[in-house]
Specification:
alpha/beta; 204 residues
Length: 204
């Protein structure tokens, strides 16, 4: 997909007179440990960032190259977390919305519309359109997906220094075989999501 196609959704809204559009996406809904991270990004209309795409389709190296470009070119952006304790307290969907709300609150410009990746939405006090697979269909969502993913990965790499026995720098908290083996050997650490481990500990 060429970068230009990434503006199709936004262009439809521009034609309706909606000018300030932000993309919102999250990283880290599935892992057993660490926070969920959300980013909100407003790019200048029809800006082409070569190589921009859904963060899952990009290599770590490419994502990291894109981060400074996105931050520099964006009209505004916000990046925020909801931590594992909040996830355990209010559930992962609500914690994801909380992180998104925090990211939106950081924007220096209030968007007229938020394009949110996925099919679940919440009232954020602005017009919202959910876009399934939005990170490969919208430039703003793709940019948000890259910022959220790299920020969360970096956080988990830092946590790996604090809790080296789990291998967070490799799997970023996802439920890999090695991660489950570490949980069997060492038990959970303070950044594990206990609600995600109920079944695992119930089965032991």
């Amino acid at each position: 997909m060429s970068e230009h196609n990434l503006w199709e959704i936004e262009d439809g809204w521009f034609e309706k007179g909606i000018v300030t559009i932000c993309g919102v996406d999250e990283a880290g809904r599935g892992p057993l440990a660490g926070p969920v991270c959300a980013a909100a990004v407003i790019l200048p209309a029809d800006l082409e960032i070569p190589g921009l795409n859904d963060s899952k389709k990009l290599s770590d190296k490419r994502r990291r190259e894109l981060v400074p470009v996105i931050k520099e070119q964006a009209v505004s952006y916000g990046i925020a977390f909801a931590d594992n304790e909040e996830i355990d307290e209010i559930n992962i969907l609500q914690a994801t919305f909380l992180a998104m709300e925090r990211a939106l609150a950081q924007l220096k410009v209030k968007p007229e519309l938020a394009l949110i990746d996925g099919n679940r939405q919440k009232n954020f006090g602005i017009k919202v359109e959910t876009v399934v697979k939005g990170d490969s269909l919208s430039a703003n969502i793709a940019a948000a997906s890259v910022l959220a993913k790299v920020t969360r990965d970096d956080y988990m790499i830092q946590m790996a220094q604090q809790y080296p026995q789990y291998g967070f720098e490799i799997h970023k908290g996802y439920g890999t075989k090695a991660h489950y083996e570490a949980l069997r050997a060492y038990g959970p650490c303070p950044i594990h999501r206990m609600t995600f481990l109920k079944k695992f500990y119930g089965e032991k």
